[in-house]
């Protein structure tokens, strides 16, 4: 029941609507208020084209007020009459709500009638002004906002290329697959998404049946008895839990069905984690359906989609049709003039369609059953984007609202029938939520923030530029007085976008230079439009195969945009061949005297001329990376894939690329790829299906220029027990059918045949460049060890310790600097040596990615006796550590190239030594005879190389002049590069700016996932392979008696006191109870309009002090120096001054942590972001090797 205040407010507003215009228009309070609203912020008048929507909003709100007051008046009349005759009789005697509303509509809600006593009302004036405004609007060209540069589109502040857009589409699909793997319990962590098709029940697309005319309540294609294959999915997730003891313990169930469980049986922590993943998946599915269904509809159209028929006559919108999934929406523009509502079909590519089917088939029934069991409710929502998947009951007022269908406020007849598609009885996602979804995902994956309206403009602009040639744009027609007309010749692209072709030319995707100046046939047209949209983004391969009759090797028809892409590739190659390489080398290095050295010029020339395969053998530090960096620097529009054997080496190369102004990115199956000139990838990833699909997309848009195998000799290292995927690189790269370049300093002539065979190269076509690989300042020695040491100790290990200790003492005596590496031939020996010498160890499974990076960085920063590390041969593949003075091999290396791990050391101009230690047997199989560079490696010391030369060194070649193969090499030649240095720098700077929001978005997204993972688990043991069993919380940790647990507990109390008790958090930086952003904490609710403002609601902090626990545990699990350095670096980045006084420094630190920042589009405290970075570093999950 409305309160007295609400009744008075409604009565006042309705009286304002019923205020006749007797003296003059502006004597009326409503019209005067509208006039005030017409003043813009600068004191001028709002444009007519922008103000017309205000009239429409006033009209809609006025109608709602009239209906609401009529409902109140009738209810009061029924209540009053019921006192005399009873409720049932009163309901019959009191006039219907229709009559109450009609009286008001005829009096002051329409144009002035011809009755003698009729007087104009504010609504008459508003309708007249809106009609005039609409006529002006439909005849006025709006200013253009869209601009194109090559394949880059800019719209307002957003700017990105079609390649970037394509990558985020596929990145979203991959993210959705990963989450779906978690929801269906078939795999968690990286790679789970690739297992879906083999692990989940098969969708029989070729035989799927769906009766589109069936209106039986509850019906969907999944309930069609002809689809027998759907029976395999019944109770799928429950069965997965039932067969896994680990999942059963996590969920707290023993049975395989919810009906076997009591309401409280499902573990709350498991439910909360599943609910979070469920919401994350739905958001990605909504965005994929919105962006890949074809021309985008309005957010309100998508909000009302049903997946099943409902008992109140609601017809579903999701259908299966000819082996594809589609969804149908309707809108009613121009209904009064045409008498028809527009019904729009949008088809999904199979990559997205299968996600939708698996969600509706496997995931949604499970979660509905769990939620129903816990809450005791049996009603399920039929809406795809319902706020709650359990349906709620409707009140009496809602039933009265149903009687308004014949009032004529929004049309009737056929329009009411069409409204069955979109009518909503439950709370569904609002346009604000839709906007937040697309904003957050676009910022995180694209680097530019989009919203629903911007995407509509951009999608239409893409269709205009690339796709409309196939369908054309017919002539233009005129609109009616209310909305645009529906011409039967309207382009289906425009109809699918929700407007006529004429309106598309007037409003949407206007270029900058343009400033001021439901039949079956239709359904098939919509299908073709959607499929062409899929192909543009490289989706729908399965759909094309189905259309071709599943014939292998059928080549798809060329699309209008294929020619544009091919022309761009040919122009890129032609410009690259005309580049002044000498000048570009000097620009890239920033050294005016830089010249090519060794075989650099010849190798780069061959690469630019397109020879393939190219093998370059050049000494360590000789500059092999120039062979892929310089072409990428000269032609940043193309993509070079660089396969690197180590993540640590990739990091070094990424830093060098950034210094040279070359955009680079690392490929990961767990996140959307970032478009860049150089893409780094590990050998294990390059053979994966996800990466092969990524390469296919690059080739489809003619963007892939070459594949480079760095440290290519590692291909020969692969075996059944050591990195077996190395053996598959050759076959994978051959499938790419692109220029292949191999770089190495360690490929003996005798190994070439084996290497060519492994890489699937034809030796007759290989172009090999080999130059001197010796280094004169590295000395090699072999120390023979026989018998056993003291107490039966291994002789080799004893000798290594003896020689190493002697070197340590020498370093201490001379107060020298430098580092030492001890290579062990087994992990067991490595661990024993590390324990004996008291130094850190490094091997493939010693730690997580971030943990190994921390170990490596700690070693890099050390020197002298502390700069010693014991490692396997995984350490040393191209890592730039210039001050290594000695390398020990505990056991003679099996191969010569293993013994050369020390080549890269000694760069600082000082000599370095290398010792090999082994028994007699070891010496017999050790390296002997001539090496690949002509040196002899045996039991005596011989020079093995020279110091790393600088550009322009004395023994380097003279600058090259003249032309060879159409390539200019003269150092002072004309600039024929693709773009000037200033333009290239501008593009690189913009690329870096785009990366910042993407990195922030990735940080925030991972942080939110980690919050749910850590919640109700032990922060000390989480992610620890040795201690994490997933079954205990911090307070019950088995390590409770350890000093580390005590330090974490003490730290949590300290931070809780300093940050919360002393109120260090800046206003609006987060919740004052848990420290998390208000946009995450359920204690806070977004205010109306969703302008980033929140107010305290009725909820509670769902994460309690999880943020504090993660911060303290992360700092504890990291080496102390690493954690402190991370915080210091973050403070230095903001220019914070450091206090000398310890107490003042601690006070400043807590104030700084509580400060408010803008992080990934949300207001948060620095504590949140610092915790995210520290936790990432402490428990990273991606393997380096």
TrEMBL record:
The keyword Membrane does not apply. InterPro entries: DEAD/DEAH_box_helicase_dom, Helicase_ATP-bd, Helicase_C-like, P-loop_NTPase. One of its GO terms (biological process) is double-strand break repair via homologous recombination. It is an enzyme of class 5 (isomerase). SUPFAM superfamilies: P-loop containing nucleoside triphosphate hydrolases (SSF52540). GO terms for molecular function: 3'-5' DNA helicase activity; ATP binding; four-way junction helicase activity; nucleic acid binding. Its EC number is 5.6.2.4. SMART domains: DEXDc. Residues 605-765 form the Helicase ATP-binding domain. It catalyses: Couples ATP hydrolysis with the unwinding of duplex DNA by translocating in the 3'-5' direction. Keywords: ATP-binding, Nucleotide-binding. Residues 908-985 are annotated as: Disordered. GO terms for cellular component: chromosome; cytoplasm. Belongs to the helicase family. RecQ subfamily. This is DNA 3'-5' helicase. It comes from Colletotrichum sublineola.
């Amino acid at each position: 029941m409305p309160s007295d205040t609400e009744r008075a407010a409604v009565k006042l507003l309705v009286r304002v609507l019923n205020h006749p215009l007797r003296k003059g228009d502006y004597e009326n309070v409503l019209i005067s208020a509208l006039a005030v609203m017409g003043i813009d912020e600068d004191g001028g008048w709002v444009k007519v084209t922008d103000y017309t929507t205000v009239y429409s909003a006033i009209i809609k709100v006025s109608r709602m007020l009239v209906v609401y007051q009529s409902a109140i008046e009738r209810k009061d009349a029924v209540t009053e009459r019921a006192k005399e005759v009873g409720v049932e009789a009163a309901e019959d005697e009191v006039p219907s709500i229709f009559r109450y509303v009609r009286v008001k509509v005829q009096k002051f809600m329409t144009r002035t009638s011809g009755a003698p006593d009729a007087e104009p009302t504010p609504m008459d004036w508003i309708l007249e002004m809106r009609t005039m405004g609409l006529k002006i609007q439909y005849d006025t060209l709006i200013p253009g906002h869209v601009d194109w540069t090559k394949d880059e589109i800019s719209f307002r502040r957003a700017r990105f290329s079609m390649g970037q857009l394509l990558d985020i589409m596929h990145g979203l699909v991959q993210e959705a697959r990963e989450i779906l793997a978690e929801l269906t319990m078939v795999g968690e962590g990286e790679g789970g998404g690739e297992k879906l098709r083999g692990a989940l029940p098969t969708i029989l697309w070729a035989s799927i049946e769906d009766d589109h005319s069936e209106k039986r309540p509850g019906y969907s294609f999944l309930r069609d008895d002809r689809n027998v294959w759907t029976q395999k999915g019944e109770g799928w997730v429950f069965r997965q839990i039932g067969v896994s003891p680990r999942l059963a313990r996590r969920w707290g169930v023993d049975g395989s069905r919810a009906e076997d469980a009591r309401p409280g049986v499902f573990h709350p922590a498991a439910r909360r984690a599943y609910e979070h993943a469920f919401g994350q998946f739905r958001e990605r599915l909504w965005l994929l359906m919105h962006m890949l269904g074809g021309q985008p509809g309005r957010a309100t159209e998508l909000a009302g989609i049903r997946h099943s028929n409902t008992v109140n006559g609601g017809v579903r919108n999701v259908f299966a049709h000819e082996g594809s999934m589609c969804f149908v929406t309707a809108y009613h523009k121009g209904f009064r003039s045409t008498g028809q509502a527009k019904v729009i079909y949008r088809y999904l590519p199979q990559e997205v369609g299968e996600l939708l089917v698996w969600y509706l088939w496997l995931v949604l029934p499970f979660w509905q059953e769990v939620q129903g069991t816990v809450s005791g409710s049996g009603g399920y929502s039929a809406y795809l984007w319902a706020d709650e998947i359990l349906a709620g009951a409707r009140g009496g007022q809602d039933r009265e609202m149903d009687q308004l269908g014949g009032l004529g406020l929004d049309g009737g007849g056929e329009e009411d029938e069409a409204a069955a598609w979109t009518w909503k009885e439950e709370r569904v996602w609002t346009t604000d939520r839709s906007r937040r979804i697309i904003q957050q995902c676009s910022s995180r994956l694209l680097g530019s923030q989009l919203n629903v309206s911007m995407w509509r403009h951009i999608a239409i602009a893409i269709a205009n530029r690339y796709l409309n040639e196939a369908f054309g744009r017919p002539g233009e027609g005129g609109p009616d007085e209310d909305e645009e007309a529906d011409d039967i010749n309207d382009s289906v692209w425009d109809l699918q976008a929700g407007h006529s072709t004429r309106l598309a030319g007037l409003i949407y995707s206007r270029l900058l230079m343009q400033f001021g100046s439901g039949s079956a046939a239709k359904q098939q047209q919509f299908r073709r439009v959607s499929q062409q949209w899929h192909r543009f983004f490289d989706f729908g391969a399965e759909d094309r195969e189905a259309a071709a009759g599943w014939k292998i090797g059928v080549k798809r028809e060329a699309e209008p945009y294929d020619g544009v892409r091919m022309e761009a590739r040919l122009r890129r190659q032609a410009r690259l061949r005309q580049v002044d390489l000498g000048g570009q080398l000097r620009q890239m290095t920033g050294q005016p005297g830089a010249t090519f050295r060794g075989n650099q010029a010849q190798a780069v020339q061959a690469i630019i001329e397109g020879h393939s395969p190219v093998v370059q053998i050049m000494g360590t530090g000789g500059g092999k990376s120039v062979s892929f960096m310089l072409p990428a620097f000269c032609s940043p529009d193309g993509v070079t894939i660089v396969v690197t054997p180590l993540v640590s080496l990739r990091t070094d190369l990424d830093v060098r690329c950034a210094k040279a102004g070359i955009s680079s990115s690392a490929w990961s199956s767990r996140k959307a790829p970032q478009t860049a000139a150089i893409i780094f990838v590990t050998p294990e990833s390059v053979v994966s299906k996800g990466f092969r699909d990524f390469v296919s997309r690059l080739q489809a848009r003619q963007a892939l220029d070459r594949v480079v195998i760095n440290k290519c000799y590692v291909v020969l290292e692969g075996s059944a027990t050591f990195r077996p995927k190395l053996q598959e690189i050759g076959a994978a790269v051959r499938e790419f059918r692109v220029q292949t370049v191999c770089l190495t300093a360690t490929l003996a002539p005798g190994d070439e045949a084996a290497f060519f065979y492994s890489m699937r190269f034809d030796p007759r076509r290989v172009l090999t460049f080999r130059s001197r690989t010796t280094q004169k300042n590295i000395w090699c020695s072999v120390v023979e060890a026989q018998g056993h040491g003291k107490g039966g100790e291994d002789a080799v290990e004893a000798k290594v310790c003896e020689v190493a200790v002697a070197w340590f003492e020498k370093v201490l005596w001379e107060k020298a600097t430098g580092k030492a590496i001890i290579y062990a031939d087994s992990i067991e020996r490595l661990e024993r040596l590390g324990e004996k010498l008291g130094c850190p160890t490094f091997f493939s499974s010693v730690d997580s990615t971030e943990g190994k990076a921390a170990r490596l960085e700690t070693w890099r920063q050390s020197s002298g006796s502390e700069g010693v590390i014991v490692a396997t041969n995984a350490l040393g593949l191209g890592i730039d550590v210039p001050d290594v003075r000695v390398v020990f091999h505990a056991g003679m290396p099996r191969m010569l190239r293993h013994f050369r791990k020390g080549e890269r050391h000694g760069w600082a101009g000082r000599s370095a030594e290398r010792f090999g230690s082994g028994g007699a047997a070891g010496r017999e199989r050790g390296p002997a005879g001539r090496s690949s560079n002509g040196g002899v490696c045996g039991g005596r010391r011989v020079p093995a190389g020279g110091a790393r030369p600088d550009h322009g060194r004395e023994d380097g070649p003279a600058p090259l002049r003249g032309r060879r193969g159409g390539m200019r090499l003269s150092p002072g030649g004309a600039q024929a590069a693709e773009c000037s240095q200033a333009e290239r720098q501008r593009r690189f700077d913009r690329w870096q700016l785009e990366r910042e929001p993407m990195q922030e978005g990735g940080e925030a997204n991972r942080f939110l996932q980690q919050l749910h993972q850590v919640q109700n688990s032990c922060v000390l043991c989480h992610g620890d392979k040795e201690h994490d069993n997933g079954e205990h919380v911090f307070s019950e940790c088995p390590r409770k008696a350890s000093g580390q647990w005590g330090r974490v507990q003490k730290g949590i109390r300290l931070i809780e006191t300093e940050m919360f008790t002393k109120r260090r958090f800046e206003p609006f930086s987060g919740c004052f109870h848990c420290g998390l952003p208000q946009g995450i904490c359920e204690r806070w609710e977004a205010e109306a309009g969703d302008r980033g403002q929140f107010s305290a609601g009725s909820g509670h902090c769902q994460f309690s002090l999880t943020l504090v626990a993660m911060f303290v545990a992360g700092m504890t699990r990291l080496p102390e120096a690493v954690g402190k350095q991370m915080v210091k670096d973050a403070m230095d980045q903001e220019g914070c001054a450091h206090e000398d006084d310890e107490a003042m420094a601690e006070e400043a630190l807590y104030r700084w942590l509580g400060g408010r920042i803008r992080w990934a589009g949300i207001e948060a405290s620095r504590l949140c972001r610092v915790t995210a970075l520290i936790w990432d570093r402490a428990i990273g999950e991606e393997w380096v090797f």
